[in-house]
Structure formats: structure tokens, C-alpha cells
Design a protein that fits this description.
Elements: H1 2-9, H2 13-32, H3 38-49, H4 66-80, H5 86-99, E1 105-113, E2 116-125, E3 128-130, H6 134-137, E4 141-147
Antiparallel strand pairs: 1-2, 1-4, 2-3
Helix pairs in contact: 2-4, 2-5, 3-5, 4-5
Length: 148
């Protein structure tokens, strides 16, 4: 918690503006995920990202590197989602990279741990996992990849 507060305190003005927008978008995703099927939502995000006007939302996202974006998205989803934030985090990253016209895939995997079935979501670009570690994603069997 303290490290997240330190990261927030060290954000630039542009990063603060982007963080606030990402937090609002993350809260919106929280609502949309309860009403829309994931493949349909990924398709919608991909289409809106290619729109000239909507590809600029959130403002200032093109000024950040992918690593900066992931850090801000991670902070925004930590604020807006208590548990299970890998899906909204991955959806936001997928959307913003689609807006940059990058070829990315939204990946969903499952893992059976004892009697519990667990799921995880991440983004890949050219077979490279973005914003996550291979040690984490390798624990999950890929069952769905949604492309832009």
C-alpha cells in the first residue's frame, strides 16, 4: 500500500490526469463486465480504439510508454477493483494499445489449484507478455485469445 502511495505521489501532472481518467474508465468497465459478454466487449473496445475521435480517449495516453501506461492502469485498477483486477487491467491495456494501432491479443487462462479453478487475464504482443511475468502467466492454460 505504501509503495502505491509513493508511486502516486511521484506522478507528473500528465500522469495524474491520465490516472484519474483510467480510474473512471476502470469503474465503467466494472459495470459493463456485468452486462456484456467478454468477446463482444473486446470487439467493441477494438472498434472504438480505431475511431479517430475515441482513439484519443483517455487524453494524454499517447504521451506515455507502454510501461508507464501499465503502471498507471495497475494503480487505477487497484483503486477501483479490490479483487480480480487482472481482467479490467488487461482490457484497458488492450484498448489503449489498439488505439495506438498495435497488434495485441487479450489472453485468458485457467488453472486448477487443488479443488479451486482460477482464471487470469493478460495482454500479449507478438507472443510477448506485456505488463505481467511469464512465471505468472505460465501457471495458466490459455483457453481464449481475443485479437484486435
Amino acid at each position: 500500500m505504501l509503495s502505491k502511495l509513493r508511486r502516486l505521489a511521484n506522478l507528473t501532472l500528465v500522469e495524474h490526469a491520465l490516472f484519474l481518467q483510467l480510474t473512471a474508465l476502470s469503474l465503467g468497465l466494472r459495470v459493463v463486465l456485468t452486462t456484456m459478454a467478454l468477446p463482444r466487449l473486446a470487439s467493441l473496445l477494438s472498434r472504438t480504439a480505431s475511431s479517430p475521435l475515441l482513439s484519443q480517449v483517455p487524453l494524454f495516453h499517447t504521451r506515455c510508454t507502454v510501461d508507464q501506461l501499465f503502471t498507471l492502469i495497475d494503480l487505477a485498477t487497484a483503486v477501483s477493483h479490490r479483487d480480480g483486477r487482472c481482467l479490467p487491467r488487461s482490457l484497458l491495456l488492450f484498448w489503449l494499445l489498439c488505439a495506438r494501432q498495435e497488434s495485441v491479443g487479450l489472453c485468458l487462462g485457467v488453472s486448477k489449484n487443488m479443488a479451486t479453478l482460477e482464471g487470469h487475464a493478460w495482454v500479449e504482443q507478438g507472443g510477448i507478455v506485456l505488463g505481467d511475468t511469464l512465471s505468472c502467466t505460465n501457471r495458466y492454460a490459455l483457453f481464449l485469445r481475443l485479437s484486435a
